[in-house]
Amino acid sequence: MKRYLFPLGFLLIIGCAPANSTTSAPTVIKGSGDITSTIEQYRQLLGGIDNNGEPGSRSTGYREINWDSLPNELSAPNFYTPDFFNASTAPRARGAVLSTPGKGLMVSASNNNPTGTLPRFGNINPTYVNSFKTFSSERLFSPIGSNIAEIRFYVPGTNTPAAVQGFGAVYTDVDTDHTAFEYFDIKGNLLGSFATPIADNGLSFLGVVFKQAIVHKVRIQYGTAALGADDSLSNDVAVMDNFVYGEPKAIQP
């Protein structure tokens, strides 16, 4: 395994063997602290073109979700609608559908929300307001009642299953070394498992790019325990900001 070090907390790892030996080794990009250049490098690896929320598939580029455009009624203390970012029209046609084995999914409240809900999941635990930082102001994303979420990809704006070349995301407040992402193809075969960098009370980024669009599902682990009102010191709770992933392309029979 070869390692290449870059400035501003950027680390590029090439040659990490995936669990599925039939798949070429992917490129892994990770960093902590100032992750701005790390994320931009990842975007460029995915084609460098932001296809925003336009329906249908493009030949190259990526999609990105930063949660900040979400309406107040779909953010804390209310639950998030799992297919909000796979609507049939722009700007919500981004091909991403989320789920969790827990109670539901939630996007944190904005600072000036009409219900007076504390931002950064302070409605669940007031200490989170100071613990969780944001990459793009000002909302964050997390499962509730579980520390597991799954994202499946579809041709944006449709129910047609799709695959992406890679998926990456911003974590906030990662305290322990643990598996963060597991990638699966359409048949449920594990393509690889990867850990995110530690950044206590700070920001981390983890992104993986495969040689081709093969990822249909990503299993995401948020820390080692679900968010809660009475966190144990032995637990690591972490939430997420921006999602960045390759252009979803229809899976051929």
Give a written overview of the molecule:
45% of the residues are buried. 6% of the residues lie in helices and 34% in strands. The strands form four sheets. A seven-stranded antiparallel sheet has the order 1-2-3-13-10-15-4, covered by helices on one side. With 253 residues, the chain is mainly beta. The N terminus is likely disordered. The two termini are 34 Å apart. It contains two helices and 16 strands.
Shape: globular
Helix content estimate: under 10%
Q: Span between N and C termini?
A: 34 Å
Which structural category do the helix and sheet elements fall into? mainly beta
Oligomer: single chain
Features:
mainly beta, 34% strand, 16 strands, 253 residues, disordered N terminus, 2 helices
Quickly describe the structure:
With 253 residues, the chain is mainly beta. It contains two helices and 16 strands.
